[in-house]
Amino acid sequence: MYEDNIDFSKYTSELKVIAFYSPKYILTNDTPNNNKNEWSYVINAKPLFGRHNQPRKPGDELNYLGYYNISGPEIIKKKVKLAKSHGIFGFAIYYYWLSGKTFYENVLDIYLNNKDIDFPFFLIWKNGNYSKNDINIIKDSELFIKVIKKYIKDSRYIKINEKPVAGINQILKSKHIKI
Predict the structure, then answer these.
(1) In this structure, which long-range contacts are made by residues 107-111, counting pairs with CB atoms below 8 Å and at least 24 apart in sequence?
(2) pTM
(3) Which of 41, 67, 107, 137 is deepest in the core (most CB within 10 A)?
(4) What tens digit of pLDDT does each residue of 26-43 get?
């Protein structure tokens, strides 16, 4: 049972709430049967104990999002509308990039190419779970900044004191990182 969708957009606050946005939920077609995407975890869920309600279809009774496919602007616009109605200021969008190889970048390009998606965002560099020897943080970070320049130049990109915001989601096995 899902709770009713409450509209909080009439309330104001000095706080700027950012929602994490993962571009990994892409289907190759409109049916939720592609096992090469994140929805396969939801679709294949099994009950673990009595009265455990699994699998559960994502979304509400109106099927607002459901097993959404973000390979086009329509769902992104719905997500923006939903976020705005809940007082969310912008998205922190995961950018999957490792030494020149990108994943799910098409979602960001859809966002970038549709100026009618009027919602602030910034990027979080997500490069996975790698050992200290597998990556060169200094080299990769310099190249990463060059790669995301087209997003930083977008008028919707979040800046603080005219400086672009970026996050890093990097898990290393080592306890200390020397830069």
Answers:
(1) 107/23, 107/26, 107/70, 107/71, 107/76, 108/23, 108/151, 110/70, 110/71, 110/72, 110/73, 110/76, 111/73, 111/76
(2) 0.74
(3) 107
(4) 654 443 444 456 666 777
